[in-house]
Design a protein that fits this description.
The structure is a homodimer of 196-residue chains. By secondary structure, chain A is mostly helical. Helix content of chain A is 69%, strand content 0%. The first copy, chain A, has helices at 9-24, 31-37, 52-76, 83-100, 102-109, 119-141, 150-169, 171-177, 183-193. In chain A, helix 1 packs across helix 5 (102-109) and helix 4 packs across helix 9 (183-193). The interface between A and B is large, with 52 and 52 residues. The structure holds a DNA duplex (30 and 30 nucleotides).
Chain lengths: 196, 196
DNA sequence: AGAGAATGTTGTCACTGTCAACATTGCAAT
DNA sequence: ATTGCAATGTTGACAGTGACAACATTCTCT
């Protein structure tokens, strides 16, 4: 018996960090405070995350993997024979995921993250981009914006879905634009990105 | 004669801060370091920004005001009789401004900003949203997505333009999606948001 | 000329991330 | 089963940081 070794400190730190980000933002993230909350010495987290930025990178890498999974699930709700409707559902899936995971999503949207991206994060991101690119390519072969370059379409789709999600999850823009968030609203917005 | 009073410390701090953000990100922002760079005591900036977050809020408020100006300028390049083309130019204007002001834009995209938004920032943001909303309303009266709610359209337009800009200005996404940025590319992307 | 506001300085405090040296535990090879 | 090593956790230290209070200088307005 011993509580010398926490057993699952790495995950505990990540979960606590996400909670802190959700409550007070990335700015408020403190490794020492997290350690104290978990009843562990102030330097313990360093065994799992050499630097604070590594923790952020891990959170964002996980988040992109989850988002990818979620978007794929939404995509599968449409038959393969409806590639354009599938795009629409993927956009919806992105927005809904962001609304249900505001803390993680805000970590993803932090511009600083790109500065300390490790290989795992890059790989998560590549996979996400690939999933979107594939779906776009499929849709194009069925007539969706046929004469537009794949790169342009990818930037548009990723940017629009994430940007719209950012607006919807941002408290400030929310208070300025101020609108009630319902499933109907999300569907209507997704229809603007990719008409169903 | 005296260099006791700097004379324009407030603006100097803002400019230096933007330079730091551009070079090393918001995370690297340090009031003490900025003070040292400007040859001023470590507590001098506090006379102009009570807290670090106030500096960020001021930078972002300025940035939205500039963006609004820039978007309006782009809008005026189209005649009033072409409200849809005007929307397209406004989207282009947003993207170009972001590409030319990466540091400021990344500050705007920082999700933490919404936590310490002061009245000035909210006002800047309201004005920006109003300009977009007006242009959208005008376009709708000329047939652009006539049967879509104004709120939905506003969220879509703001989200898509900012999201696409975020993708284009983000080094990480840039390295993953990896595409050469040209004026032609920007035009093509803006056409996806609002067909010219 | 002088008073009060604005601006800058100095000193201090608690807190933070990071590192190095050390302690404990888990595990795998023997 | 023992032992040796890697993984994990602890303690202590250091420089940097934001924020505050008390004080100094300068500007502005009358």
């Amino acid at each position: 018996m011993s509580n010398y070794h926490h057993g699952n400190l790495r995950n505990a730190v990540i979960e606590r960090a996400i909670a802190v980000i959700g409550a007070d933002g990335v700015e408020a993230l403190s490794l020492r405070k997290i350690a104290k909350d978990l009843g562990v010495s102030h330097a313990a987290p360093a065994r799992h995350f050499k630097a604070k930025s590594d923790l952020l990178a891990a959170i964002v890498a996980d988040a992109y993997a989850e988002l990818t999974k979620s978007v794929l699930a939404a995509s599968n709700a449409a038959g393969k024979s409806q590639p354009i409707r599938r795009l629409n559902l993927m956009a919806q899936g992105t927005i809904f995921w962001a609304l249900e995971n505001k803390a993680k999503f805000s970590a993803m949207m932090n511009p600083d993250v790109s500065r300390f991206a490790d290989e795992q994060l890059k790989s998560s991101l590549r996979e996400f981009a690939q999933v979107i690119a594939d779906a776009l390519s499929d849709a194009q072969q069925h007539g969706f914006r046929k004469n537009v370059s794949g790169e342009v379409l990818l930037i548009y789709a990723v940017g629009a879905a994430q940007g719209v999600s950012a607006v919807l999850t941002d408290d400030l823009l929310g208070s300025v634009i101020g609108v009630e968030q319902t499933a109907t609203l999300v569907e209507a917005i997704a229809d603007q990105i990719v008409p169903a």
